[in-house]
Amino acid sequence: xxxxxxxxxxxxxxxxxxxxxxxxxxxxxxxxxxxxxxxxxxxxxxxxxxxxxxxxxxxxxxxxxxxxxxxxxxxxxxxxxxxxxxxxxxxxxxxxxxxxxxxxxxxxxxxxxxxxxxxxxxxxxxxxxxxxxxxxxxxxxxxxxxxxxxxxxxxxxxxxxx
Length: 162
Known about the structure:
The protein is mainly alpha-helical. The protein is built from seven helices and three strands.
């Protein structure tokens, strides 16, 4: 179920990216503190990449993730990165150690793969909400109504309608 939700989430991202021109992907938005949609997309992708890269060792530190500028500047490359994540993401749950800090580790806690997948999914939705804010000023760009909305919020709204 979690993997299916992640695949659905990435499908929404790919659908959006497929409608954008490269200049729309790379333009700075004041609403995003002058960040670009590409930068937010890169951040989403690199969090998952970090989790997958460190799965075998069991030691995870998102602060030490790679920052690949090609992801934030090339839509096709970003989509290819997502496709690769989706091809590798279905792994057995296992214990992991999560660290925080670059030069000096400030925190080290126990976690597991499924917990980190869930974290990345929720984190992705948060960044999608930010992307949506930037895109709302462009009426020519169609954004799915539920893009960047948490599943619990969607369910709550559906209950209120009944």
